[in-house]
Write a structure and sequence with these properties.
The complex is a heterodimer of chains A (463) and B (332). Chain A is mainly α. Chain A has 19 helices and no strands. The longest helix of chain A is centred in the first third of the chain and has 38 residues, at 72-109. Chain B has helices spanning 3-6, 14-42, 47-64, 68-76, 94-100, 140-148, 173-184, 214-232, 250-266, 280-283, 312-327, and strands spanning 124-125, 128-133, 154-159, 188-192, 201-202, 208-209, 238-242, 274-277, 292-295, 298-301, 330-331. Chain B is globular and about 80 Å long. The model of chain B is unreliable at 106-110 (pLDDT under 50). Classes of the chains: A mainly alpha (463), B alpha/beta (332). The interface between A and B is large, with 78 and 71 residues.
C-alpha cells in the first residue's frame, strides 16, 4: 500500500479518526495502532508479518534479558545474539541470492560445482529499515540509553506504519518516550503535517516520477542510444529524481506521523547545498548517517586510532552503507566512491583552501557522478553510460519542463532557507478548512499527472 | 524535532487533524469517487479489493451523479501523461467487428507455412523495432535496445506495467496497438505480455466468461489475434510474440498454460508474419518452474524473486534468442 494510492486514502482517515478516539486509553490505542500497522504491512505481503513479528519478539527478549543482568560479558553476548538475528534476517532475504550467484559464478569459472542452492528469495518491504531500528533498540538498551520497553511498545515502535517501509530510521530513544504517555490532543502540528504530505506528493508524483518517465529511465536503460548531452542531462535528472522520490516519501511519513501526534526526526536538509562529502552525509538520509556513525563507525574505532585506522573505518562504513542500499556491485562501487571521497577530504583537511562556490561545484558534481554508479543496472552499463558522456551529439531530451524541474529542485536548495521557511510557515498556520481545501486541490492535480499504470514504487522501497 | 514546538506549530487540536483529513476525503469522493471504484476493479481478487470496492462503489455512485468529476477532469486533462485512446476500435465491439474487418477467426486446421517447406521471404533492413507488453517486457526492451542501438536500429520501448489482454481497466490493447502502429510504423514488434492476465472477459454472446476454460482461451486468442493483426500491418510488419515462462505459483501456472496455448492458436493464420517464440522450453522445460539454469556453462539465477519475471541475466538470454529470430527476417 503506497501512500499515494486509493487504498491508503481509505485506510488513513479511518485509522486517524480511530487513533484519536482511542488515544486517551493506551490499553486500547496500542493494540489498535499495532493492528493497523500490521494490516498496512500485510497489504504488501501477509507472510512477512511473521518475519516482522519474529524480529520484534527476538529483539524484545534480548532487550529484557540484557536489562536484567549486570554482568557485562553476558550483556555483550546477548547483544551479539540479537544483532546476529537481525543481520541473519537481512542476509537471507536481501543478500542470499546475490552472494550465492557470485559464489556459483566463481566456482563455475573454476570448473567446480555449485555448493549452495541457487534460489531467488522475495525481499520483504522495509526489512533494511526495521532491522536497523531493532538493532538501535537493543544497542541502546545495552548502552543503558533506554530502558527496555514493554512488548507492545517495542512492537509499535518497530511496526508503526508511517516509518515502517522506508524510514526515517527513528531511534528507540526518540520514539519510546512518545509512546509512554498519550499524545496531547490540544497540541497537534496539523498545518505542518498537511503541508508535508502535500509537498511530499508533489515531489514524488509530479517531479520524481515525471523525470523518471521522460528522461532518466530511457537513458539509463539504453545509454548506447544517447549522446553526451542527453546522458549528462539524465545524470542531473536522476540527481533531482532520487532526492524528490526519497525526501518526498520522508515528508509524507513525517506528515502522517504528525497528524497522529508523533514527531519523527528530520531526514534531509538541502543535501545538494553540501560543500563536501562529510557535509553531504549530514544533509542526506540523516537518520541513516547517524545510525552508521553510532553503530558502525564509532564501534569500529571511529577516528580515535590515528589516520590510517580512521580511513579504514570510513571505508568499511561506506562500503557497507553502499551494500545496505542493495545487493549489487553498483551499490558497492557507489559506497566505495563515497568512502574514498570522505577519506580524501579527511586527508586534505586544512591543506587545500578553495572558495566556497568552487567547493560546492566540485562536491555537487562528484555527488552526481556517484548517482550514475548508483542508478546503473550493472557495472557494464555504468561503463557504457560514462563513455557516452564523452560522445558528441545532440541534446534531444531537453524540454522546458524537464530542465525547469531539475533547476527548481536543485536551485531551491541553494537559496537562503529563510525565505522558503516564511512561505512554509504561512501554510502551516492556515485554518483547518483552508488546509483541507489545499490538500484536496493538491491531490486532484497530483492525481491528474499519474499515468494509467499507477504510481511507481518509491526507489527506497527496494532497499 | 524541536521545530514544531519552537515555531509554535503545535497550535491545532486533534479534531482539526481528523476534520482536515475527513473533509479532504469527502471532497475527493465528490470529485474522484469513480476512480476509487476503478482502482478496486483493477486490483486482484482478495480482501483488499473487496474493501476498496466497498468504499469505491458508493463513492463512485455519488460521483456519477454529480458534474464535479468532469469539471476536475477537464481542468486537469492537460496534466495527463497518457495518449488519448478514445473512439472506436476496442475489444468491446467484439466478434462482429472482427469478422467485418476481415480478420479470420481461429480454426483448427490452421498451420505454419514453414512446416510444409514454403520458402522464406527475402530478408530486409530493420529500421524500427517496437518492444512492448506488460512488465514481462522489462528489462527485455532495454536488453534488445542495447543490442540493436549500435546497429542503427531505432528501438521503441513501450512497456505498460500492470496491464493485460484480458483486462481493459488500465489500457485497451486493441486500441493501444493501433495507436503504436499509427505513431511509429515499426517493421518488427516484440510482444511479451500475460503476467497479469486471467480476468473474466465478455464472450460473443455478451456473457462474462471466467478463466481458464476453452471458451476463455478462445476469447483470449481472438484478442491476441486482433492485436497481432494490427502489428503485422497487412504483411508489412513482423511480430515476435513471446509465450510466458512457467511461473512459480501453481495458480498462475494454470493461467500461463492457457495464455500460451491461446497465443499459439491466435498466430496460426499468419505463421509467416507472426512468430511465436516459446520461452517454456528455454526457461522451464516440461513446464517445471526453476529459479536458475545453466547459462554459458555457469549455473545462473534467471528469475526474479516473484517467480514470474525474468531477472537481468534471464532477460539477456531471452534477448539473444529473440535477436537470433529477428535476424532470420531482417538484415542486421
Amino acid at each position: 500500500m503506497l501512500f499515494p494510492s486509493d487504498q491508503f486514502a481509505i485506510f488513513f482517515p479511518i485509522v486517524l479518526a480511530l487513533s484519536w478516539a482511542l488515544m486517551s486509553r493506551p490499553a486500547l490505542w496500542k493494540p489498535f495502532i499495532l493492528l493497523a500497522s500490521y494490516v498496512f504491512y500485510a497489504s504488501a505481503s501477509w507472510r512477512f508479518c511473521f518475519l516482522l513479528a519474529g524480529i520484534t519478539l527476538g529483539n524484545q527478549l534480548a532487550a529484557v534479558l540484557i536489562a536484567r543482568t549486570s554482568d557485562e560479558r553476558r550483556r555483550a553476548w546477548l547483544l551479539r545474539g540479537a544483532v546476529a538475528l537481525d543481520l541473519a534476517a537481512l542476509g537471507v532475504f536481501k543478500y542470499y541470492s546475490f552472494f550465492a550467484q557470485q559464489i556459483a559464478s566463481l566456482l563455475g569459472h573454476l570448473g567446480l560445482g555449485v555448493p549452495v542452492p541457487l534460489v531467488t528469495i522475495a525481499l520483504p518491504v522495509g526489512i533494511s529499515f526495521f532491522t536497523f531500528q531493532a538493532i538501535s533498540y537493543v544497542v541502546d538498551v545495552r548502552r543503558r540509553v533506554v530502558e527496555p520497553a514493554s512488548l507492545i511498545d517495542a512492537a509499535v515502535y518497530l511496526s508503526f506504519f508511517p516509518h515502517l517501509v522506508a524510514g526515517p530510521i527513528v531511534r528507540a530513544r526518540e520514539f519510546l518516550p512518545q509512546l509512554r504517555s498519550p499524545r496531547d490532543r490540544n497540541r497537534v502540528a496539523v498545518g505542518s503535517g498537511v503541508s508535508l504530505i502535500a509537498l511530499g506528493l508533489i515531489k514524488k508524483v509530479v517531479i520524481a516520477d515525471y523525470l523518471a518517465r521522460v528522461l532518466v529511465d530511457p537513458v539509463f536503460a539504453v545509454p548506447q542510444a544517447y549522446a553526451g548531452p542527453d546522458a549528462l542531462l539524465a545524470a542531473y535528472g536522476y540527481t533531482a529524481q532520487i532526492y524528490c522520490d526519497f525526501s518526498g516519501y520522508t515528508d509524507m511519513a513525517i506528515g502522517l506521523a504528525l497528524l497522529l501526534g508523533y514527531v519523527f526526526p528530520q531526514n534531509f536538509r538541502s543535501p545538494y547545498r553540501a560543500t563536501g562529502f562529510r557535509d553531504f552525509w549530514r544533509r542526506w538520509h540523516m537518520t541513516l548517517s547517524r545510525f552508521l556513525r553510532d553503530f558502525l563507525f564509532i564501534p569500529l574505532g571511529g577516528s580515535r586510532g590515528g589516520k590510517l585506522l580512521t580511513y579504514r573505518n570510513l571505508m568499511i562504513t561506506m562500503v557497507l552503507a553502499g551494500l545496505w542500499h542493495g545487493a549489487a556491485w553498483t551499490f558497492v562501487l557507489w559506497g566505495t566512491f563515497h568512502g574514498l571521497g570522505l577519506v580524501t577530504e579527511h586527508a586534505l583537511k586544512g591543506r587545500l583552501r578553495l572558495p566556497a562556490w568552487l567547493r560546492w561545484l566540485l562536491t555537487f558534481h562528484l555527488i552526481v557522478f556517484g548517482w550514475i554508479l548508483f542508478r546503473s543496472q550493472s557495472l557494464a552499463l555504468t561503463g557504457t553510460f560514462l563513455s557516452r558522456l564523452a560522445h558528441p551529439g545532440a541534446l534531444t531530451l531537453a524540454s522546458a519542463t524537464v530542465v525547469g524541474a531539475i533547476v527548481i529542485v536543485i536551485g531551491l536548495q541553494l537559496l537562503p532557507s529563510r525565505g522558503l521557511e516564511v512561505v512554509q510557515l504561512r501554510f502551516e498556520r492556515m485554518r483547518p478548512l483552508a488546509l483541507a481545501g489545499i490538500l484536496t486541490l493538491v491531490i486532484l492535480f497530483v492525481g491528474a499527472t499519474v499515468p494509467s499504470q499507477g504510481v511507481p514504487p518509491f526507489i527506497y522501497f527496494r532497499f | 524535532m524541536g521545530r514544531f514546538d519552537r515555531l509554535g506549530l503545535r497550535n491545532f487540536r486533534a479534531r482539526d487533524a481528523v476534520f482536515v483529513v475527513l473533509v479532504s476525503a469527502v471532497l475527493l469522493i465528490l470529485f474522484q469517487g469513480a476512480s476509487v471504484r476503478k482502482a478496486g476493479h483493477e486490483m486482484n481478487p482478495g480482501v483488499g479489493r473487496d474493501l476498496v470496492l466497498a468504499v469505491g462503489r458508493p463513492a463512485g455512485w455519488i460521483a456519477d451523479r454529480l458534474p464535479l468529476a468532469s469539471v476536475s477532469s477537464s481542468a486537469t486533462a492537460f496534466l495527463s501523461p497518457e495518449p488519448s485512446l478514445g473512439g472506436p476500435g476496442g475489444f468491446e465491439e467484439g466478434g462482429a467487428r472482427t469478422r467485418s474487418a476481415g480478420i479470420p477467426l481461429v480454426t483448427r486446421d490452421a498451420f505454419e507455412p514453414a512446416n510444409i517447406g514454403a520458402p522464406r521471404p527475402a530478408r530486409r533492413a530493420l529500421h524500427t523495432l517496437l518492444v512492448t507488453g506488460d512488465s514481462m517486457s522489462m528489462p527485455l526492451d532495454a536488453d534488445l535496445a542495447q543490442l540493436l542501438a549500435p546497429r542503427g536500429v531505432r528501438v521503441i520501448r513501450d512497456p505498460h506495467i500492470g496491464t493485460g489482454i484480458s483486462t481493459t481497466f488500465i489500457v485497451n490493447w486493441a486500441k493501444l496497438s493501433a495507436l503504436q502502429v499509427k505513431q511509429d510504423h515499426p517493421e518488427a514488434v516484440v510482444v511479451f505480455i500475460g503476467a497479469n492476465d486471467g480476468f473474466p472477459m465478455k464472450g460473443p454472446s455478451g456473457r462474462e466468461v471466467s478463466c481458464c476454460n476453452a471458451e476463455w482461451a478462445a476469447i483470449y486468442a481472438n484478442r491476441v489475434r486482433q492485436i497481432a493483426n494490427t502489428y503485422r500491418q497487412a504483411g508489412a510488419g513482423r511480430v515476435y510474440w513471446l509465450t510466458l515462462p512457467t511461473p512459480r505459483d501453481p495458480a498462475r501456472q494454470a493461467i500461463a498454460r492457457v495464455v500460451n496455448a491461446a497465443i499459439e492458436v491466435a498466430a496460426q493464420p499468419w505463421a509467416d508474419e507472426v512468430r511465436v517464440i516459446d520461452t517454456v522450453p528455454v526457461f522451464t522445460p516440461g513446464e517445471v518452474y526453476r529459479d536458475s539454469m545453466n547459462v554459458g556453462g555457469t549455473q545462473t539465477l534467471v528469475r526474479e524473486a516473484d517467480g514470474i519475471h525474468l531477472n537481468g541475466p534471464g532477460s539477456s538470454l531471452l534477448a539473444g534468442i529473440v535477436l537470433a529470430r529477428i535476424k532470420q527476417d531482417f538484415i542486421l
